[in-house]
Amino acid sequence: MTEQGAGVVRPLPGDGVVAHLNGLALVCGPGSAQVEELLDAVRETAENGGDGRALVRKVAQVLARSMNDEPPTIAVAGPTGGGVAVLVSGAASAHLFGAPDGDFVVSGQDALTWADRLVAGPVGRVELRLPGSGPSSPYSRLDGGVVAGGGAEIDYTATGHTMHRPHPIPQPSPPPQPGHPYASQPSGPQQPMIPHQPPPPPGVPPYGQPAPYEPPPPYEPAPYEPPPMGGPMQPPPHPAPGPFGPPPGLPMGPPPMGAPQPPVAEPLPTQHDDRRHDSGHFEPQPQPEPPADDPSDSTQMDAAPERLGPMVHGVDCKNDHFNDPRAPYCAVCGVPLSTRDLVPYKGPRPALGVLLLDDGMALTLDSDYILGRDPERAPEVQSGDARPARVTSPDGSVSRRHLRVTLENWDVNLIDLGSVNGTQIQPPGDPNFYDIPPNESVTIMPGTTVRVGVSRTMRFEPHRSA
Fold first, then answer.
1. pTM score, two decimals?
2. I need a labelling partner for 187 at 20 to 30 A (CA). Which of 170, 266, 335, 376 fits?
């Protein structure tokens, strides 16, 4: 592998189909019904500037549409993030040499659907093999347009496929016609007048060259800044004296510094208050034992205790619902929140909503989660920092440990754990899905749809009960 994506690419002799575009390679066995769809997947990925991960995802979508048929014999590979992504199906295999973990083989014969692998780090050589393939020829180079054979057929009436969509290059302007104010008198052979182009800014390609493909930036909300605590606080405005104001003689505002303070009534003791003994120490009062659970009582339900979230800064609405201080409305009752009239304080964070999966399962957002086919063995689950959420798909596109959901202050964040088929988000009101980078935290807004792998989706619903 090189920085450009691939070095020398040589086909192996056999009776299958071999394709290579922009470092993306495909081999397909003879008689495969999906060969045209697979070739289109390679062309579209190369034309859009995609890498090996994008190619594996497109090929998985093609295979998922024919799950009831016999798995075709195919293998694909492409560079991604300094490593390589591979997918094999049927009797095909991928041989990787010079990987950080040593040489190994990915075979599709032992998989129920297909086998995929994301190999991190540089890889020396990859061989995609069909059954009966032979050794490569030193004169065959797909990257250089040279193959070994006995002849060639060129059909000028057919339309060929291009690796890149050609970008239109601006043509020089024709010389002005005679009589035009800017036309000069001919003094020799006329040269085409090329418009003056200012020097491009840093990072912009020169005039006449296509700009590189850049995916849209991920959604990044404003950082959470807790309100200042402990500083001087201005008292709320008092009403003017009058029929509905304070009684005459009541001071308007707090007493000045050094003035005698009014007496404060001592709160009445309750059943859970600590009582002070004559010795000056507090001792807790003995609490009555709770009644034992009666198994014969059919009205008793096994209910988990309410989970108290971490302490965060928030505000209360007029109905005493604890809310995000940045929110314009209460998340429970919907009343407007005026931050000018509310005093922030630190309290236990409630559940931030739910993640509603396409199969009806709901994940209450009161803790972190690990999503995947086998999340129970994740280190975060073993240490108690996150809860497991088993998510599977019939196409096998969900990894064992695919996605982590983290809660920070009042934000819900997603971290793709280096999955093969990736994670995409669709912000509210946006018709497009966007890939989130692996191993990076991305904050999502309420109403965001999340695609896990190829076919599983879930939606962030912010509504919660009181």
1. 0.42
2. 170
Distance CA(406)–CA(412), nearest Å, equals 6
How big is the CA angle at 386 (ends 381 and 387), to the nearest 5 degrees?
A: 80
In whole angstroms, what is the distance from residue 81 CA to residue 438 CA? Answer: 10
Phi first, then psi, for residue 21 (nearest 5°) are: -145, 125
Question: Cβ(111)–Cβ(89) under 8 Å?
Answer: yes
The SS3 call for residue 267 is: coil
CA–CA distance, 9 with 2 (Å, rounded to integer): 12
User: What confidence score (pLDDT) does residue 280 get?
Assistant: 39
In the DSSP assignment, the letter for residue 386 is: S
How far is Cα of residue 194 from the mean position of the Cα atoms in its chain?
46
Between 301 and 177, whose confidence is greater? 177
**447: Cβ–Cβ under 8 A, 6 or more apart, which residues?**
427, 428, 429, 459, 460, 461, 462
CB atoms within 10 A of CB 20: 21
Tokens representing 67 are: 């799950």
Which 3 state secondary structure label does DSSP give 72? coil
User: Among candidates 374, 346, 398, 319, which has minimal Cα distance to 60?
Assistant: 398
Adjacent-strand bridge partners of 426:
449
More confident residue, 289 or 120: 120
- Quick check: 406 and 371 in contact, CB under 8 A? no
Q: What is the dihedral of CA 402, 379, 308, 317, to 10 degrees?
A: -40
* 3-state percent breakdown (helix, strand, coil) of the chain, nearest 5: 5, 25, 70
* Measured distance CA(65)–CA(274) in Å, rounded: 67
pLDDT given at position 350: 92
Name the amino acid, one letter, at 164.
H
